[in-house]
Design brief:
With 393 residues, this protein is an alpha+beta fold. The chain contains 14 helices and seven strands.
């Protein structure tokens, strides 16, 4: 048995729309079985004791078939679920009523060895409708109920239960159509979820572009101008820079594609959060999923390297962040075109007790089992490059 999510008043339930093709196919089956039942009536009516009553019952079956077909055709209204429930209930009332009315039409010798009045094929409509409406459990229950009524009416418990195919066929039909209906509902839910996620992602992208064209550029300008002016404006520049990074991270995280293991995150949004007019970030097209702690440590190491660029590379320096996923390992490069660093200067800073770079960058990467190598140009003034290599797993 399946459950559907609430939908807004005045709109059709998506689950009802999902099973609409099955309901249309059922109506075609109902028409075919109705023609068979009428043909069976014409062939068998001469053996009935009460022929007039048999025609009245057949007329009732034809009338109900038409009414149910018209009701089930209204699948695009908010009342679809209620209408289908009423039709399924009516199907069972009519089917079971006609089966139990067979002894009123024919004598014992006839119905003891022949099909009941509405025929087994037309009776299957009730089973199919129940299966589509409520799933395989309801379909099986309906098949058992109809089969038990037929066997009871024919008084053939010993023979029909073990030798007749009525019960297995009805139960199998209920199971198969119920599973098909559930599959259609799940597919519809997944499709709608994908549509909602796509629409939300597009809206986030639109907002991100607007924020980037406005707020982020202003914050970046304040940071650069405050740093250039110096004095009391330095603190203002620092605060603007912090808010710029925080806002970029928020936009990037909101734009990240959902899915995957909840214990892992995509490294790409964590790095693209640092993108700025003077910071270019390049990442692969496919998600790079890592454990949350690992991804955050890599992002923190990149942030530390970018901070060094901002503090030491010069006011006109630009930084370039490149993420490569080779499979066995990740390679993250942070390069700048600033004033560079003299060979051996990092070792001198560590010997002097200045451990900021060691702890913020090399220490983090080493804790992940990777290596952090500072690549310097042959001459001062041609920039520097950090290369992080982190093994997966």
């Amino acid at each position: 048995m399946t459950t559907t999510r609430p939908h807004r008043t005045g709109e059709p339930d998506p689950a009802d729309a999902a099973t609409a093709p099955l309901w249309r196919a059922v109506q075609a089956f109902r028409l075919v079985t109705l023609l068979y039942a009428v043909g069976q009536q014409i062939a068998s009516v001469r053996y009935y004791e009460n022929q007039r009553l048999s025609w009245v019952l057949i007329a009732l079956m034809v009338l109900w078939s038409g009414v149910s077909a018209l009701l089930l055709a209204r699948w695009h209204t908010p009342e679809t679920a209620r209408i289908r429930t009423l039709v399924v209930a009516g199907d069972h009332v009519v089917v079971l009523g006609l089966i139990t009315a067979t002894p009123l039409v024919a004598d014992y010798d006839w119905y003891h060895g022949h099909q009941p009045l509405p025929t087994t094929m037309w009776s299957a409509n009730a089973v199919i409708s129940a299966a589509i409406l409520r799933g395989p459990v309801a379909g099986i229950a309906s098949g058992l109920a109809v089969a038990a009524t037929i066997i009871t009416m024919r008084q053939q418990w010993g023979q029909d239960v073990w030798a007749d195919a009525t019960a297995p066929v009805l139960v199998s039909v209920g199971l198969a159509l119920g599973l098909a209906a559930n599959t259609a509902r799940r597919a519809q839910e997944q499709l709608q979820r994908a549509v909602r996620l796509t629409a939300a992602a597009e809206e986030r992208e639109r907002l991100a572009r607007q924020v980037h064209d406005g707020v982020l550029q202003i914050l970046s300008y304040i940071k650069r101008r405050g740093t250039a002016i110096g004095g009391p404006a330095t603190e203002l520049a620092q605060r603007a820079g912090e808010q710029e990074i925080a806002l970029r991270r928020l936009i990037s995280e909101q734009g990240a594609a959902p899915g995957g293991d909840a214990a892992t995150v995509d490294l790409r949004p964590l790095l693209t959060a640092y993108a700025a007019p003077d910071v270019v970030v390049s990442t692969p097209g496919d998600p790079v999923r890592l454990g949350r702690w690992t991804a955050e440590e890599i992002a923190a190491a990149v942030a530390a390297a970018l901070t060094n660029v901002e503090l030491h590379a010069g006011p006109a320096a630009r930084a370039f962040v490149l993420l490569e996923d080779t499979g066995p390992e990740l390679i993250v490069s942070v390069r700048d075109d600033g004033v560079g660093i003299a060979p051996g200067r990092l070792s001198e800073a560590e010997n002097e007790g200045r451990m900021g770079v060691s702890r913020s960058i090399t220490g983090r990467i080493a804790a992940l089992g990777g290596t952090a190598e500072l690549l310097t140009a042959a001459t001062v003034g041609e920039g520097t490059e950090w290369e992080f290599r982190i093994p997966r797993g």
